[in-house]
Amino acid sequence: MDKYQYTQQWFLGAELYKKMLEFISGKEKMNILEIGCFEGLSSVYIADNLLHHPESTLACVDPFMNIDNNDHASLLQNNVEARFDYNISQCSYTDKISVHKMTSDAFFETNQKNYDFIYIDGSHMCDIITRDMENSFRFLNTNGIMWMDDYCGGPPNDTSIKRTMDAFLEIHKEQFDLIHVGYQIAIRKK
User: Fold this and answer.
1) Closest CA to 65 of 57, 52, 75
2) Which domain holds residue 90?
3) Which of 107, 126, 163, 177 is most buried, taking the most CB atoms under 10 A from its CB?
4) 141-170 per-position pLDDT tens digit
5) CATH number at residue 151
6) What is the pLDDT of residues 47-65, one digit of tens each?
7) How far apart are alpha carbons 132 and 35 in whole angstroms?
8) How many helices (H) and strands (E) does the chain have?
């Protein structure tokens, strides 16, 4: 951790940080997608732990401040993108990481790749959450894991994120196994 630059370390308390290696060894070939990267703490953790196989890859998708109406605008005022770039440049597998500084919608419009693991920690806007989950699930390989942040999060007394994710889960309930439920939620595609 000493070689990286972070102002926030929320990810260190995340269930994915604590449980990821219970579900994935990091030794097999994996194509990984991360939606929402902030300063890159989760990105470098995933890279340092899951990209050991010579053909494994990580695609990081985040528009940073390149869009209007960014629901993270108050957090992105302080060189976040520069810290992300620096942190990615310092991690063990920099050469296996592709960075897409665009919205997830724009990314999925041209994406041709399927993924074995997808971490969704992007927008907190319900319509974008729905699209991120639908698009990610469409590009998730069979037996692939989709892990979503903020399932029980958001502003106090606001359950809209949970309701949005629950609606997706209800529609697709026959197509996955639920493997983790807490503040975050994770499914494995059948």
Assistant:
1) 75
2) 10-15+27-189
3) 107
4) 999 999 999 998 766 667 899 999 999 999
5) 3.40.50.150
6) 999 999 999 999 999 998 6
7) 8
8) 6, 7
